[in-house]
Amino acid sequence: MIRPLPLALTTTLALACALPAQAQSAAAAPVQREHAGNRISENIPPIPAELLERLDRYQNTRGASFAGWTREGCILIGTRFAETVQAHRVCQPLGMREQLTYYPEPLDALETAPATSRLDGFVFGKDVGGNEFWQLHWFDLGSRETVLLTDGKARNSSPLFSRDGARFAFSSTARNGTDTDVWVMDFASRRAKPVVTEGGQWTALDFSPDGTRLLVSKYVSASESYPGVVDLATGALRLFPVEGGKAAFEGFRFAPDGRGVYFVSDEPVDGKPSEFRRLRHHDPASGRVTVLSRDIPWDVERFALSDDGRHLAFVTNEDGIGKLHVLTVPEHRAVPLPAIPLGVIGELGFSPDGRRLAFSLNSATSPSDVYVIELDARTLTRWTRSEVGGLDASKFVSPTLIRYRSFDGRSIPAFHYRPAQVPAGKKVPVVIQIHGGPEAQALPTFNPTIQYLVNEMGVAVLVPNVRGSSGYGKTYLGLDNGARREDSVRDIGALLDWIADQPELDAGRVGVYGGSYGGYMVLASLTRFPDRIKAGVDIVGISHFGTFLKNTESYRRDLRRAEYGDERDPTMAAVFERISPLNNAGRIRAPLFVAQGRNDPRVPYTEAEQIVKAVRGNGQPVWYLLFADEGHGFRKKRNNDYFTAATMLFWQQHLIGEAGAAAR
Q: Any idea where the Peptidase S9 prolyl oligopeptidase catalytic domain is (predicted)?
């Protein structure tokens, strides 16, 4: 059920009481509210049929993501053919996509059973309405039956099979609702018990080849994790020493011999600090750590080992582009690979016989699809070809990577999408799209909304990776932590300066768009640069760090305190009061569009409603959109379609102008 708007917070009431009579009169104007199924929209005009028709083909693009190999050599993929992403099976290159699941909710965390086991199927996660309290289910490919594995109440994630399929590990909040423990299930009996209950957020990473030990890791923040190993017979947990005392880790796998381990970390190399996360091998017999990506000055994002123990594959993120590497094991010699199209490489995995390597590949001009490399033949074969809504893909725009100087002289990277065939002397409007996280990275992946803005509306799009983004080293990642939060907002100010220097860009027509932390950045930019931004779209954004930390789900509160600061600290609380957009709502003078999911466990819907009320209280126009069946973002096609159409109408009315829209 949709609740009525909550009472304003004290800070909001104080702002409202201080309003002049004219603003209070404007705030009293009736809100035009529409209920349509699970959607509530406020002050959003009817969407013209012409806009819906032009946008429809872009809305009907889709991608396919690799999720694993089945025992018979088929691949499991996640893709959408109706409302939500479901599991499909493909058994030959460009073969039929056999849909296996048909749920109204999207699937999460697909994990195939190991080919070395007697199991034939996969595990998947599914929540309700975007609440992220995933339940894990087993889908049996032989019987086509589905079985619930978890308790139906807690938040369960990160499924992992032992090599023989006898045991199954996962993360769960079942013990106390706050800590994320590691549980292990006897898969035949379905009996499960917690094996790591140390407090915090723990994940299982790999079973030893004989199934007696389990590699685990405690995640504290993007720059701090603690790996260890559990003896499953005794329950004893032994943490590994961390070089330098504190480091980020990504992935831990047992070497084929069951003694050594492969892992990714940014620990020092030869006693010198390491900016990037490198792939390493530790041999416990000699104590030697070999840095396998020593000569690559970029992060290693993921890696995979073949079941036969002969090959290791890993992906580096080099200025936003994925580079694939394959090594022999145990020699660690580079394996020659066929040419791979430029793009962003996603999940990867070896076939059961170890002779093929599958991976997802996405680019700015092509949705995600699955490719397979034959290692011996050194050939690359495309296994899926996702639809692009009948559009001419040759007209999709690839971005240019630009860099601009910020207030402290630091170079900030951004992807610049330019409309084609702009008449000489014409300045085009600009949308700045800001990623969430904040410990995330904007990548040049396929985005139908950006392609529509550029090709159909003649809008340039800039996608910056402001300080605090991942992918550019440990120092860059930490530049926005705690009291330095506003420095990332100042990076947007520097981008506005850069826009003003470009002869083809209209500095008088700049909009900002972002979700989650990116939504905070939108609101903060509107308050800090009120005369330089013409309109803003905030999706599931933070409007006050204090209320956000108070109301976010308990299992993630400490994780966010590690990044944003602790609201219980009076000094940090004072910083939050100073920088939070809610307390500066009186400075927002541009039209605002706020969109939210009612079930959002990360950024509660109250964050949206309090900023909507505060900005309206200042007499400024606000469009507000709330979906009762969504959480942190919009994963159902009908909802996302409506939101995107409303956003395009918002830009048309408040950024481009009717004359500009008609000219297109």
A: 445-655
